[in-house]
Amino acid sequence: MGLLDLLFGNKNEQLQEFITKGAVIIDVRTPGEFQGGHIQGSKNIPLQSLQGQINAIKKLNKPIIACCASGMRSSSAASILKSHGIEVVNGGGWSSLAHKLNQ
């Protein structure tokens, strides 16, 4: 276990825990970016539309894994979702996340 794991927890373990709980992957990139490639089964809700989808996301009653291209927008999305009491983790870039999830 590295120093970063001690400080921030092991993200891979957290991702696997969320998947076990039936997490929904929300990709916050633009529709055009999403069409260029995405994780199978993920939902595309662009970051600029996220605020208007909070109630629909809450109705899913599932933890959320947010992803984007690099992890910057998904970090913002995770902050927004957390502020509304939604269990969320920033999955980072979608292609890296897909690899971690073995997709």
From TrEMBL:
What CDD domains does UniProt report for this protein, alphabetically?
RHOD (cd00158)
The UniProt entry, under InterPro entries, shows:
GlpE_sulfurtransferase, Rhodanese-like_dom, Rhodanese-like_dom_sf
Domain (Rhodanese) spans 19-102
Family annotation (Pfam families)? Rhodanese
Q: PROSITE patterns annotated for this entry? A: RHODANESE_3 (PS50206)
Family matches, as PANTHER family: FAD-DEPENDENT OXIDOREDUCTASE, PYRIDINE NUCLEOTIDE-DISULPHIDE OXIDOREDUCTASE
Name recorded for this polypeptide: Rhodanese-like protein
